[in-house]
Design goal:
With 585 residues, this protein is an alpha/beta fold. 64% of the residues lie in helices and 10% in strands. The protein binds adenosine-5'-triphosphate (ATP). InterPro entries: AAA+_ATPase, ABC1_TM_dom, ABC1_TM_sf, ABC_transporter-like_ATP-bd, ABC_transporter-like_CS, P-loop_NTPase, Type_1_exporter.
Length: 585
């Protein structure tokens, strides 16, 4: 928490100092009021001096008004500073998350990253606001209250010396139990966020398989966990307030009783007893504020630690000091004995993968699900770093490139079509922000998406909902293909990118792509053997290893796994063009 405050409140030292000065003045005025009250009763009312009553009364009014004005200023500045802190933390947080590689994002998990950016930042923001308001006020109230009470009646101060340690012990016990509960709460909130995210994004599958009850039960378990922790927190918080009031009321009765005896014996004025009780209340308020801070701070400290973890996280995929710039890039990709394990996984997903993909050729990957096809595509553009061997692009290790520059060589169409909230234009311009409308329409034409976009009255300005949910699977896939085409990259990677297209559209897209990809390097993952039989090179994967490499004919002759795949899909049969012509007929 301190680190976060140092970094972010440090940027507003002027405002924070001004706020602290206001708080000191306000608290001094607050401490002065009971003193005036004692004077008005002792020297004015009891002595029957009306002038004194008026004079002190006016002073009390002025002091109270001053205190109110200062309080308003303090609330304004503490809110402003805390909101600014939240804004700046969120801004830096998001900027840093954007720089992280998939490796770190998967380690944190998307659900936890969202909770940290929302719930955790809010906790810190609220704690900061309260801290700015009461952190300086509480100790002044405590110490100042004791001094002022002692001035009213020294001998009665022993009562305060007994009451404060009792309250501190009670608070200590309650806070000691609340701290670990808040840590647990944050972890449980992460879990509930993950669960909500998964279930909402998978709602169609849940409905299709009628799994609502199972999912509801799974959610109930997570929800119950949060409920149980909140209940425990509520119990301790609930115990705190009545306990505090019990101690305060008991103390007031004790002070009235002892004070009454001292008034009777003429050692104390009535006004002084009134003031003494008021100072006791101020001291208790100081203790209460400290207690409130000690509830809020541990919780905010947990949140601050989680935010700091993300703010300080560094991408494992970084640019070298002097990145290699390639003025005449061709797009040759070479895998040399590549091995790879996902972060946290024990077993390698890929072992000893070696191949070269040249410009003007298509290298296709086929194999059972989970055999590592998509992983090869991800490694080629350095979304993860290999754990063994090396990957070269145009003869240079991908680690020699600036990752951002390397990414511009690729036009990737991912397995899961990803679109962003905005318009068709804004989504296509991800491929090339400078692209003209003509270029966007041409890309749509190549991706066989022109017709359905033209049918929408807004055309390129048609709204794309979050995640592209207002488009069908095939439409989304075609928009993703168009986005890659807009870039006109040297390397195209199609990760099962035609799976949602019918045979006829699949053929049309491939035909339209042919002229623009003719000189590019193409990496193509496909499930259908018929889709890749024309590839210059087909690599057959089995359990992360290459078990065959060659053209369709070569593999049919030499590779059992490939032959099995082809036969399981209906034998050599007609290729995709023949199939689609039949389908159209
Ligand atoms: N982000 C990840 N974290 C951990 N393991 C992963 C991750 N992504 C994939 N894997 C694992 O790596 C293996 C290879 O996955 P990959 O997605 O490369 O297979 P694939 O051949 O493309 O499969 P499919 O044809 O089903 O898309 C699988 O066993 C999978 O469980």
């Amino acid at each position: 928490m301190l680190k976060l405050w140092r970094n972010y409140l440090g940027r507003h030292v002027g405002q924070v100092t001004f706020l602290f000065l206001i708080q000191v003045c306000q608290t001094i005025l607050n401490l002065y009021l009971p003193n005036l009250q004692a004077d008005i009763i002792n020297d004015g009312v009891t002595a029957g001096d009306a002038d004194k009553v008026w004079n002190i009364g006016w002073t009390m009014m002025a002091v109270a008004a001053g205190q109110i004005v200062l309080n308003i200023i303090a609330v304004y500045f503490s809110t402003r500073i805390a909101m600014r802190l939240g804004y700046e933390v969120r801004k830096d947080y998001f900027a840093n998350v954007e720089t992280l590689s998939l490796q770190e994002i998967e380690t944190f998990s998307a659900g936890s990253l969202i909770t940290r950016a929302t719930n955790d930042v809010q906790q810190v923001q609220q704690a900061t606001m309260q801290a700015l308001l009461i952190m300086l006020q509480a100790p002044i109230m405590l110490v100042g209250g004791i001094i002022m009470a002692a001035q009213q009646d020294g001998p009665l101060t022993w009562a305060i010396a007994i009451i404060i340690p009792i309250i501190l012990i009670v608070m200590g016990v309650i806070m000691g139990n609340l701290g670990p509960l808040f840590s647990r709460l944050q972890t449980k909130l992460d879990a509930i966020n993950r669960s909500i995210r998964e279930q909402i994004s998978g709602i169609r599958v849940i409905r299709a398989f009628v799994r609502e009850d199972t999912e509801r039960r799974r959610f109930d378990e997570t929800n119950n966990d949060v409920f149980r922790v909140l209940l425990s927190i509520g119990r301790w918080m609930g115990a705190m307030i009545p306990t505090m009031f019990f101690i305060i009321n008991l103390s007031t009765v004790a002070i009235q009783w002892f004070g009454g005896h001292r008034i009777e014996s003429g050692e104390m004025g009535i006004g002084s007893l009134q003031a003494f009780i008021q100072y006791l209340m101020i001291i208790m308020m100081g203790v209460g504020m400290t207690a409130m801070m000690s509830v809020m701070l541990p919780r905010a400290a947990v949140a601050a630690r989680r935010i700091n973890e993300v703010l300080e996280a560094e991408s494992s995929i970084t640019a070298p000091k002097n990145p290699f710039t390639n003025p005449s890039a061709h797009g040759t990709i070479e895998f040399k004995h590549v091995g790879f394990s996902y972060p946290g996984a024990d077993d390698p997903v890929l072992s000893d993968i070696s191949f070269t993909a040249e410009p003007g050729t298509t290298t296709a990957f086929i194999g059972a699900t989970g055999s590592g096809k998509s992983t090869i595509i991800r490694l080629a553009s350095r979304m993860f770093d290999v754990t063994e061997g090396e990957i070269l692009v145009d003869g240079h290790n991908v680690k020699e490139y600036d990752p951002a520059q390397l990414a511009t060589l690729f036009g990737a169409v991912p397995q899961k079509a990803v679109l962003f909230q905005g318009t068709i234009r804004s989504n296509l311009k991800y491929g090339n922000p400078q692209a003209s409308d003509e270029q966007l329409w041409e890309a749509l034409r190549i991706a066989q998406a022109e017709d359905f976009v033209r049918e929408i009255p807004e055309g390129l300005d048609a709204h794309v909902a979050q995640g592209g949910t207002n488009f069908s699977g095939g439409q989304k896939q075609r928009l993703c293909i168009a986005r890659a085409v807009v870039r006109r990259p040297l390397i195209y990677s199609f990760d099962d990118s035609f799976s949602a297209l019918d045979m006829a559209t699949d053929r049309k897209v491939r035909e339209a792509l042919e002229p623009i990809t003719r000189n590019a390097t193409q990496l193509l993952v496909a499930q259908r053997a018929s889709s890749i039989r024309d590839a210059h090179k087909i690599i057959v994967l089995d359990d992360g290893k290459i078990v065959g490499e060659g053209t369709h004919e070569e593999l049919m002759a030499q590779c059992d796994t490939y032959r099995e795949i082809v036969e399981s899909q209906g034998g050599q049969g007609p290729d995709i063009e023949e199939l689609s012509i039949e389908e159209e007929a």
